[in-house]
Amino acid sequence: MRILIFDKNQASSCFAPLLMSRLGIVTDTFSDIDNALRSLKRFHPDVFIISTHQLCEQHCALISRYRKKGIVTPVIVTATESTKDLRITAYEAGADDIVSGEIEAEEFVARVSAIERRSRGIASNRIQLPPYELDLSGRQLLRDGTEVELTNYEYMVAELLMKRTGKVVTRDEMMRQLYSDADLQNQDVINVLICRLKKKLCRDSGLRIKTIRGLGYVFQQQ
Predict the structure, then answer these.
(1) First to last CA, the chain
(2) CATH 1.10.10.10 domain range(s) in the chain
(3) Taking the domain 2-119, which CATH number applies?
């Protein structure tokens, strides 16, 4: 999962990048809204978070501006202080969730994950693809009830492929999930990860990772 955070003061969201990086989630934080919007178009994150101390009319206008551009990425607002009227205005402008007041980090991540999951049409935090079961909350892949040992990067690519079973996932989409800095991206990493996942997931499972030349990869039935 990749998350873009807009925090004008770069203070109220200080816990988010640290916590999410531990969970294998790539985060990008911006204090300038124009840079944030440009990054939304460039990286296509899974969730856009507006983090602030006090929710105000400007934030609601920002969400409205964001939606008028045709961007459908889920929007979550975190605000230490807010009023009922402003929360209603933010929802009407296009916010998907508003976290008002203090919140435990674990609950915050759970809410972000749930909203991202529902935005993809996935109702449960477990994806069943016999003989596999993908546990999104526990970040585990099970085969017939036994955990499949995966590195962090292997899991991230496997999750992306399984969430979009039967659909092409491009190499660029995979790179955006793995790296927050474009300068650090290494296309050879994708080749290695796909090769490893084919060995770990496709043997005697009835499933395969098909390479679509020039496009990307598809996880599908054999």
Answers:
(1) 27
(2) 126-221
(3) 3.40.50.2300
CA separation, residue 123 to residues 49, 117, 118, 127, 166 (Å): 21, 7, 6, 9, 18
CATH no. of 126-221? 1.10.10.10
Token pair 């440009």 is found at 38
Nearest residue to 178 (alpha-carbon basis) of 84, 80, 6, 43? 43
Q: What whole-number distance in Å separates Cα of residue 175 and Cα of residue 157?
A: 9
pTM strictly above 0.70: no
Query: Please, where in the chain does CATH 3.40.50.2300 lie?
Result: 2-119
CA distance 125 to 134: 8
Alpha-carbon distance 43 to 46, whole Å? Answer: 9
pLDDT in tens, 115-144: 888 887 777 778 889 999 998 878 899 999
Q: Cα–Cα–Cα angle for 153, 51, 121, nearest 5°?
A: 55
Angle between helices 84-93 and 57-68 (to 10 degrees): 10
Task: Give the angle subtended at the CA of 132 by the CAs of 127 and 137, to the nearest 5°.
Answer: 45
- For residues 22, 24, 25, 30, the Cα torsion angle rounded to the nearest 10 degrees is 60
Q: How many Å apart are CA 173 and CA 45, to the nearest integer? A: 10
